[in-house]
Structures are given as structure tokens and as C-alpha cells.
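[Meeting: bench + compute handoff]

Bench side (C.D.) handed over the final construct sequence. Compute side (W.E.) agreed to return the predicted structure before the next meeting so the bench team could plan truncations. Sequence as handed over:
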Amino acid sequence: MKKKNAEDELIIEDITDTAPDLVVDEGTAPKEKKGKRRSKNKHKKEEAKQEEAKPEETEREEAKTEETEPDEAEPVSEDVAVNTKADPEEIAVSSKEDPNQGNAGKKEEEPVGEIVIDMKNIVKRYFIGQPNELEVLHGIDMQVRRGEFVAIVGQSGSGKSTLMNMIGALDRPTEGEYTLDGVDMFKAKDKDLSAIRCKKIGFVFQTYNLVARTSAQRNVELPMLYGGVPMRLRSRKAKELLEMVEMADRMKHQPDELSGGQKQRVAIARAMANDPAIILADEPTGALDSVTGRLIMDIFHRLHEEQGKTIILITHSPELASECSRILTLKDGLIIDERKGSGRRADN
């Protein structure tokens, strides 16, 4: 009996250590056979150990799953995948709003370049201080950018030719401010004005202004002669310019041996002699028939499109003016209107 009591005490101690909740009072516990009670206690002890081990195994398995298995992501379309690899600078550029959005079919031509002709409040008076004092220009404001093709239109007596003389430094304004390619024309000396007319501006007049009893080639060479170009170089360039205006077969002819259209083509070649940035054309088709006038306008378009020349065309023809990129209307010595032109050659 003593031996059995000792074994019971050992079993109770084991249960108390491993599963204290299973300990019961000896007085209330039902009487069972000792062998069965011992096996039950062992079974409960193993179950308690398994319950304690389960949370640890579960945590270890979850940790391994997180390390070995990547997170499942939603499928990404090819377009999105490509965009996510785009260069950050490209994304930044594409994110900017297009100022022309919503204006499809209404694309406007931006100004070609910097301002080369800047006139502010230009006034021109003749016979100043005399009883017959005459004011022709009453305050002209005008700007022309490099590479533009601008038309100035108006009726006879509106002041077109006077304005051209101001632009081309052939005459000085009475009042106002005028800057030509960065040069203040009011402060420029006569010598400086001569250099500007020779190097920066090419003139085409309605009456041609060719030198009589001088061949077409020599007329084209004259601006280069004044510009100090060597004889061989100016001779070669004059021939090239006459070929450009399709007058190579008439280069030895004098002005009185040429038609009006031929004289004007020689005048255009002469205007291009020193490769000026600006061409001023005063009624270049006024004395020509429509077919020849069309030929002259085509030459101006080529100079503008192929060589980037800044051209100011003074005309009374609305049809020719509409081919320019911008049209200024002059009336009674004032610019009363400004509008866009097609900037394209008229359909033949």
C-alpha cells in the first residue's frame, strides 16, 4: 500500500507541473482504477504539450511562407508595364499640358525670330516750320521679326512709300523711336546708315532703278562694288544670282533691251547681292502684267522659304498681300488694321 501511495503522489506531481488545471481534490475525484487514471493523466499531459506547440509551429510556418513566397499582385497590362519603365524626364514632359490642346486644326504660326524692326510712334513731317508744313506719318507703331513675310497695303497717298523710306534708312523720322537690328537709327551717323543700307537691306523698287547703259550683270555687281567685294568674286556671284532669277541668258543685255518683268528680276538679283537679312519691296509688281507679277511673287516666296529672308512687301494688291504671313493696313498715315495672311503661294 505504501508503494502504491508513493506512485500516486509522483503522478499527481507530474500533472501539477504540466497541467495544473487538471488537478482535482482527492475528496471529490471519482474513484477509478489506478492504472486507468495513470494512462488518462499521461494522455492529457501529451495533449497539453501538443496544444502549446501548435502556436509556435504555426508562427514558424507563416514566417517561412512570407520569406519564400512573393506577394501575389494583380496582373498588369503591357501598356501599364511599359509606362512604369519610362524615363522620369519623359514622364515630366508628357505630364505638361499642351497649350494647343483643344485647338486642333487651328495651329498658329509662332513668330519666326527676334525683333529686327521696332518702330514706336514714328512721325514724319516735311517743310517743318513753314506755312506748307505737311505731316505724312502720324505715329506708326510696328514690329517685324526675323524671317517674317509682311505686307503693307493701302491706297495711293496713304504713306506706304514714306514708311518704306523710314524702314530702309533712306530718310530719318521727325519723331519717335526706331531700332533696326539692334541699331538706334536716331543716333546712327550718315556713314553708319550707308553701311546698313549696303549690307543689311536689299531694295526692290516699282520703277526698277537700274543704271542705264550698264549690263544686267554690272547692275547686280554694283552693291558688291560699294561693299568692297573683289572683282572676281562679285562677277561670279552676280552670275549665280541672275541664274537664280532665270536671267542668265540676258546678263549682257542693258536695261533698255529688257522687258519690265526682266528688269524687275534683275532688280531682285541686285537686292540679294550682299546677302541682306531684310528685303524691302515697294510695289514690285505694280508695273507688271499678272503673269509676270506671279513670277516675281514666286521668287519672293523662294527667298523667304529657302533662305529665311525677312521680306516687307508694300503693295496695293489684296491678292498678293494675302500670300504673306501678316498684313498691315495703312490709311492716312496710320496703321488701322493688322491681320494674318495665308503665308502660302496662291494656287495657279
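W.E. noted at the follow-up: Residues 14-40, 63-111 have pLDDT under 50 and may be disordered. C.D. will use this when planning the next construct.
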